[in-house]
Design a protein that fits this description.
Structural class: mainly alpha
Order of helices and strands: HHHHHHHHHHH
Shape: globular
Distance between the termini: 92 Å
Number of strands: 0
Number of domains: 1
Oligomer: single chain
Radius of gyration: 21 Å
Largest sheet: none
């Protein structure tokens, strides 16, 4: 049983390195409390790996991966647009400034369920899930479940640690913009991998860059427009000297 746990841990940990799930963990850690993100990842890992070992050991069937991937992509794209939308708001107000530094301060449960749902959907039908199904079909399913959960959480924890390190040296606004663009990229990549699997990884990643590129250009244009209109507004508000 110990050998199966170690095997499952190694397979999942290596499979998660550089995967979109680890990139998601990094992105969430840039914006929210690390322990809330880790709790969401752990809960999602327990659930998705339990589903996987159940499918592999008891059913031997696959899930509708294309539908799950489409839902995952929509969730990630929505989170990305929502995150970028926060940066468009004025940062002169003190309440807004506090919200940018810790958007999860007022509703950590909301952040927890957002991380949980995003990871749960992202992992369902992912290649790592098929690895768990294969292991559970020929090994002790409890051992496979324990090892796979530990491997997935360890990979996520490593990405969270990197996010914490980056967060200490990167301005808050840059973190908000970068995390929003990353969510858009991951969402676009998830959508392409589900509906255009024949593209290949390099082509898929290259096309996926269009989503954050377009959003970044739109954000830059909005920023320039607001900066250009600011002096004009100030001049209109100045009192007119009658003398």
């Amino acid at each position: 049983m110990i050998a199966t746990i170690l095997l499952s841990f190694g397979v999942l940990f290596l499979a998660e390195l550089g995967d979109k799930s680890q990139l998601m963990a990094l992105t969430f850690a840039l914006r929210y409390r690390w322990w809330v993100v880790l709790a969401g990842i752990t809960t999602a890992s327990i659930a998705v790996n339990l589903i996987a070992v159940g499918v592999g050991h008891f059913l031997g069937a696959a899930l509708p991966t294309s539908v799950i991937a489409a839902i995952t992509a929509v969730v990630l794209l929505a989170v990305g647009l929502w995150t970028l939308g926060e940066t468009v708001r004025t940062d002169t107000d003190e309440d807004t400034e506090v919200a940018e530094k810790d958007p999860g301060a007022r509703s950590r449960w909301r952040v927890f369920f957002m991380v949980l749902s995003a990871f749960l959907l992202a992992e369902l039908g992912d290649r790592t899930m098929f690895a768990i199904i294969a292991l559970a079909s020929s090994h002790n399913w409890v051992a496979v479940w324990l090892g796979s959960v530990a491997g997935m959480v360890a990979a996520g924890a490593g990405a969270i640690a990197l996010g914490i390190l980056l967060g200490k040296h990167v301005p808050e606004r840059a973190i908000a913009i970068g995390s929003g663009l990353l969510f858009l990229y991951i969402g676009a990549a998830t959508l392409l991998s589900a509906f255009a699997p024949g593209l290949g990884r390099v082509t898929e990643y290259a096309i996926s860059l269009l989503a954050p590129a377009v959003a970044g250009a739109a954000l830059w244009a909005l920023r320039r427009r607001s900066v250009a209109s600011a002096p004009r507004a100030e001049l209109e508000d100045e009192p007119v000297d009658s003398h």
